[in-house]
């Protein structure tokens, strides 16, 4: 297994690490003072490191001519796993609307299903992510990073009323970003299916 693929697997392995820290606290604890922003900061760092491996594995694969069918399949799968888990926790916090998460999951199921059908076809076609898919992934990752870093910094850098204002500001911006993510995700899914309509029409 080459280095880019190892980085992809590392991203997958970082998902449960992220889950551990983000599960240790939640926004529900703000009311009674039990919210621990340090855990969100660590979760944000873990997520940021995992996100960086997404850029790094693709860059190295192209630079060293190590693009493989496994990488084309596993790389977007790792991205989906990482971002979907994060959005589920953001929905738990009331930041991400269930509608947004449904749009994200619908897109991912549709695209993943098409990829599996293509991979199992007679010629074993591998459908790589398009540019809209990459934009969608980057926007999702940046939105998630903003939320977890923003909430931790807002909660640790102020007290009292000022802290509350900063937290509300981060939450409000994060909500807007989630809806923007939903729009871009829907567009990328429609574009992906449209670009591969010839395969869909001929699939048996």
UniProtKB/TrEMBL annotation:
<keyword id="KW-1208">Phospholipid metabolism</keyword>
<feature type="transmembrane region" description="Helical">
    <location>
        <begin position="168"/>
        <end position="194"/>
    </location>
</feature>
<comment type="similarity">
    <text>Belongs to the CDP-alcohol phosphatidyltransferase class-I family.</text>
</comment>
<keyword id="KW-0808">Transferase</keyword>
<feature type="transmembrane region" description="Helical">
    <location>
        <begin position="12"/>
        <end position="31"/>
    </location>
</feature>
<keyword id="KW-0444">Lipid biosynthesis</keyword>
<keyword id="KW-0594">Phospholipid biosynthesis</keyword>
<protein>
    <recommendedName>
        <fullName>CDP-diacylglycerol--glycerol-3-phosphate 3-phosphatidyltransferase</fullName>
        <ecNumber>2.7.8.5</ecNumber>
    </recommendedName>
</protein>
<dbReference type="InterPro" id="IPR000462">
    <property type="entry name" value="CDP-OH_P_trans"/>
</dbReference>
<keyword id="KW-0812">Transmembrane</keyword>
<keyword id="KW-1133">Transmembrane helix</keyword>
<comment type="function">
    <text>This protein catalyzes the committed step to the synthesis of the acidic phospholipids.</text>
</comment>
<feature type="transmembrane region" description="Helical">
    <location>
        <begin position="138"/>
        <end position="156"/>
    </location>
</feature>
<dbReference type="InterPro" id="IPR043130">
    <property type="entry name" value="CDP-OH_PTrfase_TM_dom"/>
</dbReference>
<feature type="transmembrane region" description="Helical">
    <location>
        <begin position="37"/>
        <end position="56"/>
    </location>
</feature>
<keyword id="KW-0472">Membrane</keyword>
<dbReference type="InterPro" id="IPR050324">
    <property type="entry name" value="CDP-alcohol_PTase-I"/>
</dbReference>
<dbReference type="InterPro" id="IPR048254">
    <property type="entry name" value="CDP_ALCOHOL_P_TRANSF_CS"/>
</dbReference>
<comment type="pathway">
    <text>Phospholipid metabolism; phosphatidylglycerol biosynthesis; phosphatidylglycerol from CDP-diacylglycerol: step 1/2.</text>
</comment>
<dbReference type="GO" id="GO:0008444">
    <property type="term" value="F:CDP-diacylglycerol-glycerol-3-phosphate 3-phosphatidyltransferase activity"/>
</dbReference>
<dbReference type="Pfam" id="PF01066">
    <property type="entry name" value="CDP-OH_P_transf"/>
</dbReference>
<dbReference type="InterPro" id="IPR004570">
    <property type="entry name" value="Phosphatidylglycerol_P_synth"/>
</dbReference>
<keyword id="KW-0443">Lipid metabolism</keyword>
């Amino acid at each position: 297994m080459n280095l880019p693929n190892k980085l992809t697997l590392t991203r997958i392995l970082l998902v449960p690490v992220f889950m551990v820290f983000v599960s240790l606290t939640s926004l529900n604890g703000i009311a009674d003072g039990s919210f621990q922003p340090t855990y969100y900061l660590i979760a944000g760092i873990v997520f940021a490191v995992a996100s960086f491996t997404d850029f790094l594995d693709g860059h190295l694969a192209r630079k060293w001519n190590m693009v493989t069918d496994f990488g084309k399949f596993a790389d977007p799968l790792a991205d989906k796993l990482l971002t979907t888990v994060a959005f589920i926790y953001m929905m738990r916090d009331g930041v991400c609307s269930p509608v947004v998460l449904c749009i994200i999951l619908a897109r991912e199921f549709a695209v993943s299903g098409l990829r599996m059908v293509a991979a199992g076809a007679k010629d074993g076609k591998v459908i790589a992510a398009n540019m809209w898919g990459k934009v969608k992934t980057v926007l999702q990752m940046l939105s998630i990073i903003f939320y977890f870093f923003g909430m931790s910094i807002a909660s640790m850098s102020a007290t009292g009323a000022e802290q509350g204002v900063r937290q509300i500001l981060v939450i409000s911006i994060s909500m807007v970003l989630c809806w923007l993510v939903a729009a871009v995700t829907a567009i990328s899914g429609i574009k992906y299916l449209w670009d591969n309509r010839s395969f869909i029409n001929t699939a048996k």
